[in-house]
């Protein structure tokens, strides 16, 4: 069972059984057949959407939205995290508000933001940015607040100024936790992007396509969009994990 | 004790200042009332929603869904994660599918589940269960895999029956990571439930906010934001207290 080939074969049994069950359901007819689209139709829809360029367009819209939100929220998050960790009054003042606001489930802000900003791009970016903001604040704050005292002592011995201290001591020492925060921010921003696209509908993207397909009862489109979403999410996480490994290569054996 | 009271007081001060600024901003007419209502008005709305039982009914529906959805999803996640970690056959059969399904952003399941299950209670409980399942299964898998091999070997040598293996080794050794997984699962479940209620429901706290938005009742929307935040806080804090209580022996 440890040999690779039989192991792969075993791993395919359950998905194959699901496909068989799916086919049986779709052949059963009646009301259920609407949801259980035949596998051939799903493949045809995929080919259709892929060659027509719709899928690519949706994927690019969603990706650029996610990246924009991530950059906005991430940069704001790192800035606030640094400010909270280095300036005590900021920590005292903003910390409790940050922790209070963070308790509201992310998409619970959507009706309020919808009233303020409508359902356009700015409302979406605000929610995605917020999703990226929370974990980066926390990671940056924790990273900088827990820099070992003796590093700072060394800096004092060398007569480092504030900028040198930040550049050569605080930032490298805090980097692992900052990157952990960004890793979580990426995952969370991706979920938020799909969520706001489904809930707000307008403006295109994979989530909006899923929402429209739901209204039209097009399970084939939904399944294709889910698969693309999952693949893209996996690719993004994988790429960032490699970047993280590269940035932290001086750590030797990463945990 | 008094130090804690002071710490609590200083933590409470900034939010109070914020509420004060909000009250001033709305009562000076800086923002029109369609954009911002005063905190006093929101408090009045919350009191009114409590008095006429609306808030209680929405909250009851939401918590009912959360309870069953999280309960089912977390139990399934515990069982699945344990089986995945202990049985090589089970792992070979289910690991590829599990890893693939885990890549789907949880909210992307909503349109599919709506088509499969409609928008009744079954859908909402299922989507909450799915949201809770993945973090709990993953944490349980990691937790059980993290048990030193020697412990399980000793159990095998002594032919320990599964129930005592569970009680003596599996549960105590995996409590900390599993509790973290449960906390994450509960937060996820609450997030997904509110989203599902915004999208498709005729009651529940998410629907209360969505109705508020459609009727331009910003006070009702803000009441929903506050209540859902308080619930989120209570859930997170509840599991954290539990965590501290049951992992104390590790620190001691």
TrEMBL record, chain A:
The chain crosses the membrane at residues 36-57, 69-88, 100-118, 125-144, 221-240. The keyword Acetylation does not apply. It is found in: Cell membrane. It is a multi-pass membrane protein. InterPro entries: MetI-like, MetI-like_sf. Gene3D superfamilies: MetI-like. Residues 59-240 form the ABC transmembrane type-1 domain. Its main location: membrane. Keywords: Cell membrane, Membrane, Transmembrane, Transmembrane helix, Transport. The keyword Nucleus does not apply. Coiled coil: none annotated. Belongs to the binding-protein-dependent transport system permease family. This is ABC transporter permease subunit.
From TrEMBL, chain B:
It comes from the Bacteria. The chain crosses the membrane at residues 66-90, 102-119, 125-144, 165-186, 215-235. The keyword Transmembrane helix applies. Pfam families: BPD_transp_1. CDD domains: TM_PBP2 (cd06261). The keyword tRNA-binding does not apply. It is a multi-pass membrane protein. Keywords: Cell membrane, Membrane, Transmembrane, Transmembrane helix, Transport. Its main location: membrane. It is found in: Cell membrane. Residues 59-239 form the ABC transmembrane type-1 domain. This is ABC transporter permease. It comes from Sphingomonas colocasiae. The lineage of its organism: Bacteria, Pseudomonadati, Pseudomonadota, Alphaproteobacteria, Sphingomonadales.
């Amino acid at each position: 069972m440890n040999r690779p080939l039989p192991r792969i074969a075993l791993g395919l049994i359950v998905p194959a059984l699901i496909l068989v069950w799916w086919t049986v359901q779709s052949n059963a007819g009646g009301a259920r057949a609407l949801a259980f689209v035949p596998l051939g139709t799903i493949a045809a829809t995929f080919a259709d959407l892929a060659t027509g360029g719709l899928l690519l367009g949706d994927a690019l819209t969603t990706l650029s939205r996610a990246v924009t939100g991530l950059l906005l929220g991430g940069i704001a998050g790192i800035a606030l995290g640094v400010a909270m960790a280095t300036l005590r009054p900021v920590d005292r003042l903003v910390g409790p508000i940050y922790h209070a606001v963070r308790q509201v489930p992310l998409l619970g802000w959507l009706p309020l933001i919808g009233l303020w900003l409508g359902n356009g791009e700015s409302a979406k970016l605000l929610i995605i940015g917020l999703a990226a903001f929370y974990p980066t604040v926390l990671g940056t704050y924790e990273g900088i607040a827990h820099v070992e005292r003796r590093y700072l002592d060394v800096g004092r011995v060398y007569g480092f100024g504030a900028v040198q201290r930040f550049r050569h001591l605080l930032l490298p020492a805090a980097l692992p936790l900052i990157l952990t925060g960004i890793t979580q921010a990426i995952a969370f921003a991706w979920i938020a992007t799909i969520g706001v696209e489904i809930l707000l509908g307008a403006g295109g993207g994979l989530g909006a396509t899923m929402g429209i397909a739901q209204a039209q009862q097009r399970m084939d489109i939904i399944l294709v969009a889910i698969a693309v979403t999952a693949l893209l999410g996996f690719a993004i996480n994988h790429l960032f994990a490699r970047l993280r490994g590269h940035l932290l290569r001086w750590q030797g054996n990463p945990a | 004790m008094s130090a804690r009271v002071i710490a609590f007081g200083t933590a409470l001060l900034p939010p109070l200042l914020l509420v004060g600024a909000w009250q001033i901003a709305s009562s000076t007419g800086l923002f029109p009332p369609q954009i911002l209502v005063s905190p006093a008005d929101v408090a009045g709305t919350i009191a009114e929603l409590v008095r006429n039982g609306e808030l209680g009914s929405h909250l009851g529906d939401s918590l009912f869904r959360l309870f069953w959805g999280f309960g089912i999803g977390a139990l399934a996640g515990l069982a699945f994660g344990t089986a995945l970690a202990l049985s090589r056959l089970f792992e070979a059969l289910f690991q590829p599918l599990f890893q693939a399904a885990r890549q789907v952003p949880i909210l992307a399941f909503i349109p599919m589940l709506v088509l499969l299950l409609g928008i009744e209670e079954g859908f909402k409980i299922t989507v909450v269960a799915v949201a809770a399942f993945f973090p709990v299964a993953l944490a349980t898998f990691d937790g059980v895999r993290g048990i030193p091999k020697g412990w399980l070997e000793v159990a095998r040598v002594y032919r320990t029956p599964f129930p005592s293996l569970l009680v003596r080794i599996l549960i105590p050794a995996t409590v900390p990571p599993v509790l973290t997984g449960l906390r994450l699962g509960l937060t996820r479940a609450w997030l997904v439930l509110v989203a599902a209620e915004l999208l498709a429901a005729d009651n529940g706290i998410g629907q209360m906010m969505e109705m508020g938005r459609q009727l331009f009742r910003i006070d009702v929307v803000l009441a929903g934001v506050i209540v859902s935040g308080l619930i989120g806080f209570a859930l997170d804090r509840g599991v954290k207290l539990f965590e501290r209580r049951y992992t104390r022996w590790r620190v001691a």
